[in-house]
Amino acid sequence: MLIYLISFLMTLALLILKRNIKIKFSSYYNINTLSHFLPIIPLWTVMAFRGASVGSDTLNYQNIFVNGTYSTLFSDSMLPRAPVYTIYSHLLAIFFNNPQAIIILNSTIIISIMMYCISKFSSNEIDSWYIYVTLCYYIFAFNAMRQGIAMAALLMCYCFMRVKNIKRAIIWLIIAIGIHQTAIIGIVIIIAMLKPISLGQTLKFTFILFLLEYFGEKAGMYFFLRIFPTYAGYTMGNTLHAGDSYTKGHYLALFFAIFIFWKIINMQINEKYKMLVLCKNPYFYNSVLLLTVYIIGTVIFKNVYYVSRLIIYFSQISIFLIPDILKSETIASNRILMKYISFPMMFIPYFVNIQSYLPYVFFWQ
Questions:
Q1: What is d(CA 319, CA 124) in angstroms, rounded to the nearest whole number?
Q2: Which of 105, 142, 208, 365 is the Cys-Cys partner for 55 at CB 3.0 to 4.6 Å?
Q3: Residue 225's pLDDT is what?
Q4: What's the distance, Cα to Cα, between the start and end of the chain in Å?
Q5: Of 285, 319, 291, the residue nearest 113 (C-alpha)
Q6: DSSP letters of 208-231?
Q7: Cα(296)–Cα(315) distance, rounded to whole angstroms?
């Protein structure tokens, strides 16, 4: 457990150092990229150089990679389900025969995309990295690494929709679907982010979503299993994964209540657009709506594992949404209160979940 805590604390310390110390480099070096990547090297190291026993699917991904070195691309059974990932895996196998290569490169892709999104779109890098780790998106990729890459790709899709770059958003959506079929849910992100919505529209859509998810559960399960029959074995919720998903959803719902509704209730009518101006995010309420989809879905489908694998794509928006809300609070005492109530609580699900990734070993041990 110590290595997870040390890498996490080192990352936070380096991010704080980066924020407070400005170092001038020669124009021949890309200081922006370098300064963003250096603080997260500890997180990348722990993810990339872990042993096959760390994470339930780590060995499985290595075996798939090894098998790919002995088979042709078109004979690979994964090609129809994950064409982008399969092609990428076979290309990598041309240059490397060590199965650790796929873990290292997958980790590099995930961390690099997160670095780009957070450095480019977050209103507070330190808070966003804290949320990314403590709400278990980081550790989730240790198990579901292929979906972890798809999640990162959909986060790029969300970020490009925020700046109205629909073409790039669609490209990243296609890439995500080609990596993991469940990323098709990203179509909802494209639709939800087409046009900024108001608080009133958000509340209306939330009510409609609740009715659809509550009364349409069976129909939704039927259509989902028709599209993804491989998930038929996960229809019962008495699994470790379902429990973990509900635990994380429970805490995220709590943070949502603290950060969103408490904030909205206390906003004065003549200042209702203050949050949008200060955060420079006209799609703030669109983001709230997408996170609401996750929260309602987690509560209603808390015992259905495959649903959690779908709606987790929406939950990662909290990486940007929570720092936005904190930044919008102009009263320092309120901001400190909100942060010191919620941030320590975020550490609880992380502490619980890392127990499943012990003992930690490096691949050479």
A1: 10
A2: 142
A3: 65
A4: 16
A5: 319
A6: HHHHHHHHTHHHHHHHHHHH-GGG
A7: 11
DSSP characters over 140-151: HHHHSHHHHHHH
**Percent of all residues in the chain with a pLDDT value above 90, rounded to a whole number:** 31
| Whole-number Å distance between alpha carbons of 350 and 139 | 8
Residue 341's pLDDT is 75
- Cα–Cα distance between 323 and 326 in angstroms, integer? 5
* b (16+ CB within 10 A) / e for 93-110: beeeeebbbbbbbbbebb
Reported as a single tens digit per residue, the pLDDT across 98-145 is 899 999 999 999 999 999 999 889 988 999 999 999 888 999 899 889
pTM of the prediction? 0.85
DSSP-assigned letter for residue 362: B
Selection from 73-82, 188-197, 302-311, 317-326 with the highest mean pLDDT: 188-197
Q: What is the greatest pairwise CA distance in the chain?
A: 66
Q: CA angle, corner 256, sides to 252 and 262, nearest 5?
A: 150
Query: Exposed/middle/buried for 228, CB within 10 Å: 0-12, 13-18, 19+?
Result: middle
- The span from the CA of 354 to the CA of 142, in Å, is 10
Distant-in-sequence, close-in-space partners of 117: CB < 8 Å, separation ≥ 6 = 152, 155, 156, 159, 319
Which whole-number Å values give the CA distances from 148 to 136, 183, 316, 365, in the listed order?
11, 10, 11, 25
Return the pLDDT at 291: 84
Peptide bond just before 323 cis, omega within 30 deg: no
Residue 270 CB neighbours (<10 A)? 7
Half-sphere exposure of 104 (CA within 13 A, CB side): 11
Distance CA 158, CA 160 (A): 6
The answer to whether residue 247 scores a pLDDT higher than 70 is no
